């Protein structure tokens, strides 16, 4: 079944995104990622940018091609076993026919360099994946991986002859790789039949297919912020609230306003905080670090909007403490904890405690 009612040109290179649903955060992620690709790319070598989406109207006026996805197509791609990330493998497979080289990009990705540098590395038998995460022998004995291990054992895989597992936030393939993706989808269906304990089955299936191939990582050219979304969602929401979502060339330049990392304190301040917390252990150390990191974040219009996410992390850790320890360390959250060093900005003490009280009360 064709992806589009009208023929789509096959191009040398394409960036491929999959965006579905009506949540603002994912639309913002995709649009901001596209802006960073445009900001770093050269017009002469910029790949075609294509978005597989059930809401093509969201990208009207943007310098992209949209390929409309029906609800039926999305349901078909999710498969019989309800594994939502099967859709990514299906999207990559469907996109192979549209370009000689395809770089599939998760929406929570920022380009830090010219996308063409990535395409130069994609060759027959040479692939791109976002980043190496771990070896099979590192996780194979974990309880949630035991069931998958029985499937892999049928392929002769054991602890002694495993393979590398990659994050598939970016995946670079060629139009000769239809078989690779078809096998990955087949394995996803086998490994999710009867339920599944691991939500990264899709990237494990692709990694397994690449176990004998040359795989290069993309982390130097991109930043995949999958574990730090809350910071970037806040910054991107502010960016589009300020500048609007309608595309215009000025947006490409303006996207440089937004930091490409979460609000880490400077190296010197991190070292100072580590020294101040040298006598703390376990949860108290992590709580203290997050409280002080939020206070010591660099001054920046976008960072000022999201440094409270550090304090949210501390609030979650406080709630995990047993009631007696929580009471001993933090009392009623009315005053700064006696055992923790104070923030570098004195005015943050009351602000942080008010924030913690609100978060703990809301979740309680």
General description of the model:
The structure is a single chain. The mean pLDDT is about 95. About 45% of the residues lie in helices and about 15% in strands. A 7-stranded mixed β-sheet has the order 3-2-1-4-7-6-8, sandwiched between helices. It has a two-stranded antiparallel sheet with strand order 5-9. The chain has 16 helices and 9 strands. Strand 1, helix 1 and strand 2 form a beta-alpha-beta unit. It has 2 domains: about 220 residues, Spore Coat Polysaccharide Biosynthesis Protein SpsA, Chain A, CATH 3.90.550.10; about 100 residues, no CATH class. The chain is globular and about 65 Å long. The chain has about 375 residues and is α/β, with parallel strands linked by helices.
């Amino acid at each position: 079944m064709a992806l589009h009612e009208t023929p789509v040109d096959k191009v040398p290179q394409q960036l491929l995104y999959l965006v579905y649903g009506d949540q603002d955060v994912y639309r913002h992620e995709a649009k901001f990622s596209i802006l960073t690709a445009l900001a770093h790319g050269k017009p002469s070598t910029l790949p075609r940018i294509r978005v597989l989406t059930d809401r093509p109207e969201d990208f009207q006026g943007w310098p992209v091609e949209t390929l409309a996805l029906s609800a039926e197509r999305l349901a078909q791609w999710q498969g019989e076993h309800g594994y939502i990330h099967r859709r990514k493998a299906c999207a990559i497979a469907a996109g192979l026919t549209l370009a000689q080289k395809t770089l599939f990009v998760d929406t929570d990705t920022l380009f830090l360099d010219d996308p063409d540098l990535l395409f130069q590395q994609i060759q027959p038998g040479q692939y791109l994946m976002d980043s190496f995460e771990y070896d099979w022998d590192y996780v194979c004995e974990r309880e949630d991986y035991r069931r998958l291990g029985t499937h892999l054992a049928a392929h002769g895989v054991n602890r002694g002859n495993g393979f590398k597992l990659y994050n598939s936030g970016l995946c670079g393939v060629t139009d000769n790789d239809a078989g690779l993706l078809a096998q990955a989808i087949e394995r996803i269906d086998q490994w999710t039949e009867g339920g599944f304990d691991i939500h990264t089955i899709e990237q494990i299936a692709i990694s397994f297919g690449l176990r004998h191939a040359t795989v290069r990582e993309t982390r130097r050219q991109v930043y995949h912020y999958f574990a730090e979304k809350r910071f970037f969602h806040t910054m991107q929401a502010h960016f589009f609230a300020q500048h609007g979502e309608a595309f215009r060339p000025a947006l490409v330049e303006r996207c440089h306003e937004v930091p490409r990392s979460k609000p880490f304190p400077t190296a010197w301040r991190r070292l100072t905080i580590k020294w101040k917390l040298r006598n703390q252990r376990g949860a108290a150390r992590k709580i203290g670090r997050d409280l002080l990191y939020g206070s010591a974040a660099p001054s920046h219009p976008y960072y000022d909007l999201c440094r409270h996410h550090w304090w949210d992390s501390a609030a979650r850790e406080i709630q995990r403490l047993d009631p007696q320890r929580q009471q001993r360390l933090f009392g009623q959250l009315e005053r700064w904890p006696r055992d923790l060093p104070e923030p570098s900005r004195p005015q943050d003490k009351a602000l942080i405690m008010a924030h913690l009280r609100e978060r703990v009360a809301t979740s309680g």
